Amino acid sequence: MRKEEAKFETRFISNLGTQEKNNDYFGYVQLDNYAIWAVADGFDEEEGADAAARIAVEAAVEYFMLAPGFNTKILKELTEYAHSKVVEKQEENERFSLMHTSLLIVISNYHSILWANVGNTRLYHLRDGFIFFQTKDDSISQLLVNDEALDIRDIKQHRQRNDLTQAVGDYIKVKPNISKNPVILQEGDILLMTTMGAWENLDESEIEAELSKIDNRQQWLKSLENKIMATSRKEVENYTLVSVVAEQLASPEKIKKNKKPLIIKIIIISAVLLIILLSMSLWSMKKRSNIEKTALGYQKQAEESIVKKDFNNSLDELNLAIGEYDKLHIKSRGIIGFFKGAKGKNRDTDGKINELKLRIEQTEKLQKAFQDINDGNQLYNSGDYEQASRKYQSAKFTLEQNTYKRDELNTDDILTILNSRIDATPKLMEAKSLEKNGDEAMARSDFATAKSKYDDAINIYLTNGKADYVINLERKMEGISEQQQTAYNGALLTENRADMLSASNPDSSRETYYEARRMYQLLGDKVKTGEVDNKIQEINARQLADLQTANNLIQEGLSLLNSGNPTMAIANFNKAKLIYNKLGDSGNSRSTDEYIKQAHTFVKIEDNTKQLEQQSKEELAVKQQEIDKKNAAIAEEMRKAEERNQKIILAGDLKNKGDELAFAERYIESIDKYEEAKKLYTELDLKGETEYLEYKIKRNEGYLYELQGDQAYKAKKWIDAEQKYKMSADSFDKAGDISEEVKSRVEKKLAKATRKVNKRWWQFWK
Questions:
Q1: DSSP reduced 3-state for 378
Q2: Of the residues 1, 135, 342, 674, which has the maximum number of CB atoms within 10 A of its CB?
Q3: How confident is the model over 464-520, as pLDDT tens digits?
Q4: Gap between the Cα atoms of 208 and 227, Å rounded
Q5: Torsion, CA 294, CA 296, CA 302, CA 306, rounded to 10
Q6: Cα distances (Å, whole numbers) of residue 685 to 195, 468, 689
Q7: Cβ atoms of 161 and 200 closer than 8 Å
Q8: 709 and 693 in contact (C-beta within 8 Å)?
């Protein structure tokens, strides 16, 4: 048994990275004469990725144990069997209909190795501490490397390093990359098998450097793992590292070769020699026959390539076949051409060439259709459902019209899948829009709307096989209750703050109550909203009653002053002044000071009058005239006071109406009411009230511009949105006493709009 001659040491590490689930899988078995190692990397974004990886590895190992051997044919059979098992699982369970995986298989006779891979799992072959060979990937970035459009050293950072051209589980047959000849091992050789999470975070130089520092292979793998986790990437994919060390090799084993092609070649050569020996006259006929056979061979290879989806190779083979048929054209004219039947033979040849050109046209259409499918799959998996649907529609139209190799290409099955994808795209687009609306509702703390939108999106995602999207939404749903409680606590704190301000600062208290009311409304708490409304009405009523009381005291004081009782008038004026000061009405307070001064003047006049009773009647008459003038002035002051009080009441009503309109988010009307009230307070020279209304106007302008910015943003008028958000931020800055939460919200919206404005046309297209 060859296993006893050799010694192969296998060690491995497989871990989650920063992901929630490990979708990598590894398995191996060492039989008496042969061994197999297989590692798979399931696609993380697809439901059942871990199952796809496990099924592929177990299927390959199971098949190898039943039919062990060491040749390229077995490698192909192992890959195809693993592919069929994954497809079988897809058909059994609709949840797993989109699962795929990369797969790397290495087999050995304990002296040499052969390998096969599909996708972007990698094999590194190290000898004498250096990598002298590594496998290539089935990825877009690898194609760019092959075309010399990308340096191999930059493939790890390329954004299309995980955009695969094929994978185990595709609804088309896979064409594995298989080593052409056995690789003879040397003692001490190391085979390092990796998944994408490992190789995209490791440089080849790091692999070699760590190997040179560490003798223990398990510690070497652990050091490579530490390098992976120390990467600068925020996200680290699942990673698997498998080390197979050939410490001792078995004696060489001859690989059994298929002698059938050699026998066929011998027969053909013998036949040609026999024909040459029999008759030179048949040489021309044989040449024509050989050309036709070669052309037919190219045609056959082209058809086989079509079935394998290798359209470029098929087109090359068809063009080669046309080149062969061109050789059959007989150029001789006249009598020689007549005897050779040149016209008829050339007509037959042209017919065959035209048929091949038709095949080329059909193949190019199929190539475009399957490229559209691959592009559509990438767009579909990335969430760009609209573009994906366009690609699928284009492929569907071509495949429905096509009859060439329809059954061999499983066209009907592919069309069934395309139709399901096309039907699903508008629903998934709707779900994506619902999720976005839910996020917007969450941003403005409208939790009920957010929950409703998320529920609708979840139902659509589940119906259309996007369970992986549901997990993220369920996390958002879990966060709603916590945020609701936080918002409710914030509303209670705001209400309590308003309660404390109620007695000392009614205006600030009312503004705080309005903020608490808005928060309770967003939370859907109608009871608390009603309670806050009552508190607002209570403040309004109390302020209005106090103002009316003060005005009545002024009127009564003026009446007492007019009736000759200045002492009682002064007492009333002082009481009114206390109320005005409590209400923060500095204008009326200053006016009351003037009334008090006038009353004190009357007291002095009254005292002087008693002293002058003994003076002459002429002097008394003069004094009486002065008294009449004062009385007239007092009457005029009373009239002005009444007019002033009416203006104060009207301004207060306009201010309260503006507050109500502002709460209803009718900001333009609210600003108009504030402007009318401000004009009245300016006429009354009430600077405190005027400044307070200026603050409210700027604050409402900020909310108005923010609302207009939101409307422009939804209409995708990015420049208008940016301008409105700037105006909103400027108004809030001028207002001054605006919460940091509101300013931060507008700044974030401005930043989003600015990014949209600065995007180039190709970025929107992307």
A1: helix
A2: 674
A3: 777 777 788 877 777 777 777 777 788 888 888 888 887 778 778 888 888 888 888
A4: 13
A5: -160
A6: 79, 66, 9
A7: yes
A8: no
pLDDT tens readout for residues 66-111:
999 999 999 999 999 999 999 999 888 888 888 999 999 999 999 9
310: alpha, beta or left? (left if phi > 0; alpha if psi -120 to 50): beta
Q: Is the pLDDT of residue 281 over 70?
A: no
Q: How far apart are CA 401 and CA 500, in angstroms?
A: 78
How far is it, in rounded angstroms, from Cα 4 to Cα 249? 10
Q: List Cα–Cα distances, 650 to 93, 509, 577, 680, in angstroms.
A: 74, 21, 20, 8
Structure letter (DSSP) for residue 567: H
Tell me the two tokens of residue 254: 């001859």
Place of tokens 């490791």: 202
Query: How far apart (Å, rounded) are the C-alpha atoms in residues 230 and 179?
Result: 34
- Cα atoms in the Cβ-side hemisphere of radius 13 Å centred on 425: 22
333 has pLDDT over 60: no
CA distance 346 to 471: 67
Q: How many CA atoms lie within 13 A of 311 on its CB side?
A: 16
For residue 180 the two structure tokens come to: 């052409």
Q: Are 215 and 223 in contact (CB under 8 A)?
A: no
| Whether the model pTM is above 0.85 | no
Residue 57 and residue 107 in contact, taking contact as beta carbons nearer than 8 Å: no
pLDDT band at 10 (very low <50, low <70, confident <90, very high): very high
What are the structure tokens assigned to 502, written together? 């109620």
* Stated length of the chain: 766
Tens digits of residue pLDDT in 701-713: 999 999 999 999 9
